Amino acid sequence: MASDHSTAANNAVEESPNDTSKLRTFLGILRKFMGVSDIAAVRFSLPAQLLEPTPNLEYWNYLDRPETFISIGDSDEPLGRMLGTLRFWFTKDLKYVKGKPCKPYNSTLGEFFRCNWEVEDTSPPIKHSPNSATTSAAGSVNGDNKVKVSYLTEQTSHHPPVSAFYVDCPEKGIVARGYDQLSAKFTGTSIRVIPGAHNLGIFIELQKYGEQYQLTHPAAYLGGLLRGSLSVSVADTCYVTCAKTKIKVILEYLEEGWLGKTQNKVQGVIFTYDPDSDNKIKIKDVPDKDVLGRIEGNWQDKVYYTLGSQPFAKSKEKILLIDLNPLFPVPKIIPPMEEQLPNESRKFWQKVTDAISNKQYSLATTLKQELEERQRQKAAERKDRGAEWQPRFFTGSVTPVGKPDLTKDGEEALKGLHTGNFKLEPNKELGA
């Protein structure tokens, strides 16, 4: 009888907690981690009512606006391509501009996620020279044709928690890849999030030009814990570099304004540099003679650029790089549930997601704990066998640092994703 009562309690519809009570509970849990150098590495388990019913691997992608990604290489000039890279950069985290931050499910070892986006190739051309009206006609090349972007990501390590990702757009000859790993510290009023040791940023390759762009991530702050309204702020410096064109960008995010008012300001400089002697880390370090353009604006609103070395305020022409106001994240196209493997994110978490959606939080927590316990059991079994974990789709668990390579299975999975053939053989190691 006791088990019947327990099952009934688990399946009962419970009152949905509001954001304030969620944050109060979350804050109480976080206080236990004061002084811990990296709470992201601890991987503590949260009760289901504090989670958004979204898998971590699905949540962490940089393709909120894929049309800005596919247009990076449209310019026939190096400066135009760097400006295209920056336009993509300011759209990659649109989810934080348009929505509230959330805590998705922690990824499990061997879990993977794949999806497509199909978008019109309509990003407007970028002006790259005072003497030219625009770059080559970005957006008009493909007319009304849809361009497909495919995305594959896999949890490649559990200690530390690391995932590898690969973005592919064969029609435009552009790929992106990297490792996602976060390091987080609770300060008492906010959570400071920085890239982990394996996360060297996003690496974008333009195959037509043989160029690689490295985009490093700045530190971010998750604030509003005390007032019950989460928000993301950025106060750090980050870099975009292309060794082949010898063009570099320094972006400085400025958070606090007059009387501590949040301003979300970003300013930057685009300049020529020597990849073999890359020692410019602040805007003030860059001599005017090397400056190709300047960036200024609000990373949650509008960002502008100027051409030439003149200070931004004195420039005669401030050109709009991106207006984020009308933009919202583009929906993903995900393989049908019946064609997903058991360790594919949506299917893996399906029962937990259904329970949260039905406000059955006790049941969701129980199901989540069962999944986590199963993962611990599998890890213990591998340890007993002396077996080392190997990802299915990417080479190495967390190496090479920065840029993961695809395995044969990874190449086939991406190709199938792009052609619409979602069939994958089960992973025997996972029994999934």
From TrEMBL:
Domain of life from the UniProt record: Eukaryota
Coiled coil: none
GO terms, molecular function: sterol binding
UniProt feature, compositional bias: Basic and acidic residues: 374-387
Matching InterPro entries: OSBP_sf (IPR037239), Oxysterol-bd (IPR000648), Oxysterol-bd_CS (IPR018494)
One GO term describing the cellular component: membrane
Region (Disordered): 374-409
A Pfam family: Oxysterol_BP
Family the entry assigns: Belongs to the OSBP family.
Protein name in UniProt: Oxysterol-binding protein-like protein
Species assigned in the record: Delitschia confertaspora ATCC 74209
